[in-house]
Amino acid sequence: MLEPKFNEISQSSLLGATEIRELASLLNVTPTKKFGQNFVIDPNTVRRIVTAANLDSEDVVVEIGPGLGSLTLALLPNAAAVVAVEIDKVLADQLPATIAKHAPNLAKNLTVVCADAMTITDLPIAPTKLVANLPYNVSVPVVLHFLETFPSLNEVLVMVQAEVAQRMAAAPGSKIYGVPSVKMAWYGQVTKAGTVGRNVFWPAPNVDSGLVRIVRHEINLDATLRPKLFAIVDSAFGQRRKTLRTALGQVFGKPDEVERILNEANISPGLRGEQLSLADFIAIAKAADKVM
């Protein structure tokens, strides 16, 4: 199998630690906890991310939180276009100038949207890939929001806190299997794509990071089930030590009603949420539609 190709930027180089700090100083920017900012300062790491992203020349990439542009510069030569969503106006305003300086021939392929990724509902171009170094504090809800809002996305590769990466890709029966695991699985196949040390960031976080890949299902599941299924998942894991008979009470009411639904789904009321697969949760949601 051929290794994915990485197209290097022409006429310049990727941003390193010195360039990132000089640019931050010029803008009077200090990474803030408010926006979960940890800037990647290692060119080899962004090369690795882009290589793992499986991009082709027709892909439209949405990047969330581009910061000072280190990953953006690596994405541009490897895709048809990049849409960068940045909540920090200072950084959003600067990004086009940074790209124009370091990769002038690719500046036309960049669109910057200054907005909160958690609330955005429209982009100027339909994205096919999501590739990003995500703020730790919003990584799971942001990915779920984009997968739901932009059905054109066929693959996601994100860098998140290592523990979150493990939870997102966890299998049923694992101690770390939970709400993120099931909800991500609803949209696609989730796998860990590698680990990243803390020293490639400025400032260096207190934990390591991990890469997570989500490949969207070729056949979408019944979207009408999603709100009910997600409510069931939230309830099932809201009280991890409780059996489904008790935990699902807040969704379905009295225990006898819960048992009717679980019996219809052929799921034992004595099981706990962490023992169920996505297919089991789907069966419960379908049974609820039938029984209630």
Apparent shape:
elongated
Q: Number of DSSP strands?
A: 9
Low-confidence stretches: none
Count of DSSP H/I helices: 12
Terminal CA distance: 51 Å
Task: Give the secondary structure arrangement, pairings included.
Elements: H1 17-27, E1 39-40, H2 43-52, E2 60-64, H3 70-75, E3 81-86, H4 89-102, E4 110-114, E5 129-133, H5 139-149, E6 155-161, H6 162-168, H7 179-187, E7 188-196, E8 201-202, E9 209-216, H8 226-238, H9 244-247, H10 249-252, H11 255-264, H12 278-291
Parallel strand pairs: 2-3, 2-5, 3-4, 5-6
Antiparallel strand pairs: 1-8, 6-9, 7-9
Helix pairs in contact: 5-7, 7-8, 8-12, 11-12
Give a description of the structure:
The protein is an alpha/beta fold. The chain has two domains: 17-216, Rossmann fold, CATH 3.40.50.150; 223-291, Helicase, Ruva Protein, domain 3 (Orthogonal Bundle). Helices cover 39% and strands 17% of the residues. The protein has twelve helices and nine strands. It has helices at 17-27, 43-52, 70-75, 89-102, 139-149, 162-168, 179-187, 226-238, 244-247, 249-252, 255-264, 278-291; strands spanning 39-40, 60-64, 81-86, 110-114, 129-133, 155-161, 188-196, 201-202, 209-216. It has a seven-stranded mixed beta sheet, sandwiched between helices. The protein has a two-stranded antiparallel sheet with strand order 1-8.
